[in-house]
């Protein structure tokens, strides 16, 4: 999982390095890399690639693709750490929408943790970058607009994760992964018809690195979840914020004010407390279940 978060940070840096290319174009090339790699993996596993639950699979692919567009736009036009912080709202949106979509309740304490994280995002915007190479982030209005795009991406990610949850046990995990580029590739291709800029020179290297980082991150993350308990490895995802701060400072001269750093800490605190609380509730439920079965 440590390697996975580092690889995802590398992907983020590649996307930001390609800020002069349209986001849909980056997604187009990334999707080509991903769809080939996923199809080869499915063939090796002997799994039919298109599955059976088409409606849910298409829902997962389309919401994931739209979320990716929003996230890449945020990455290109906001400081790395700000875009990553906005994306960390995705687990909160997943839980809140799960109340209606998968009938999973949200407990009272969780609403407090959610409020902490939302307040943190507001502080991140108020603190703002002191220095950044992204010209649009220097404008308060533009920065707020792209922060909104990042939050929208987190909301769409929440819809995508709920679709994945509904598919649990119904489809092979690699089929679910395969539908992401399967949907995003034609959507990005249509967008590229209206906005295309031919990559030049080192752009091709950054695009290749983006695809390689993404695929490697997905593989190592999946392996981590197979080898260890979810409650132990999932919180390591949030190390990505510190990677983003370091990469943004070293490569893009991004420096924040005290309010922004405080906001990032609040986002991490809210999401971390929610993860700890839910894992504790699950552990307590698992401990009580055998006793209830003995009584029965």
Automatic annotation (TrEMBL):
InterPro entries xrefs: EamA_dom, EmrE-like
Compartments it resides in: Membrane
Domain EamA positions: 1-124, 150-273
Transmembrane segments: 23-42, 54-74, 80-102, 109-129, 141-164, 176-198, 204-221, 233-252, 258-277
Name of the protein: DMT family transporter
Chief localization: membrane
Keywords from the UniProt entry: Membrane, Transmembrane, Transmembrane helix
Highest rank taxon of the organism: Bacteria
Topology class, membrane: Multi-pass membrane protein
